[in-house]
Amino acid sequence: MHIITLAEPLYRAQAAVYESAGRPLQTAERRQDGALLNFLGSHMRKINPHVLEEHFLSETARIDAACENSTRRQVVICSDARPADLPYLRRGDFHPVVITVDEEVAHKRKEARGDLTLGDSAHSTENGLERIHPSTPVDNSGTLQEFATAVTALLDSVAR
């Protein structure tokens, strides 16, 4: 199984902003500045509308090369796609799985994770989720163990 973090260019930019501000994030830290990521996502797409698609294509090419001689079925997960990413993900034979979570639960988890600021769920980078028709929706409003069980079942069904 391989995981593509689609927003990796945004996370690198976030780290550079914090570094430039004299408050570098720790190397292994995945804390998010949601407001900054919303800003970076919209502005990086204005500069280069294909910035995340290019990252995705680079990552899938890397995975293809690494698995070229494998006879095992490969599962590639793109963990953080947004509605704007769906056209090129579908061209790459990805099948959308929409993970839903109650807004209050998401807010509490982001605070517990130590996010620096919370992103705006109504921001333009988040729009369009209602137009996605997933083959498999997964709810993440329960416990993290319930979510892990649902994801494991989903992965087991895909790997067959």
Count of DSSP-assigned helices: 6
Kindly report the spatial arrangement of strands forming the biggest sheet: 1-2
Please report the distance between the alpha carbons of the first and last residues.
13 Å
The proportion of residues forming helix, as a percent range, comes to 40-55%
Major sheet description? 2 strands, parallel
Q: Write down the overall mean pLDDT.
A: 83
Question: What Rg do the Cα atoms give?
Answer: 17 Å
* Count of beta strands: 4
Which oligomerization state do the chains in this entry correspond to? single chain
Helix-strand string: EHHHEHEHEH
Shape descriptor: globular
Strand content: 5-15%
Structure classification: mainly alpha
Stretches with pLDDT under 50, minimum 5 residues? none
What's the layout of helices and strands?
Blueprint lengths: L1 E3 L3 H13 L13 H14 L3 H16 L9 E3 L7 H6 L7 E2 L2 H11 L24 E2 L4 H16 L1
Parallel strand pairs: 1-2, 3-4
Helix pairs in contact: 1-2
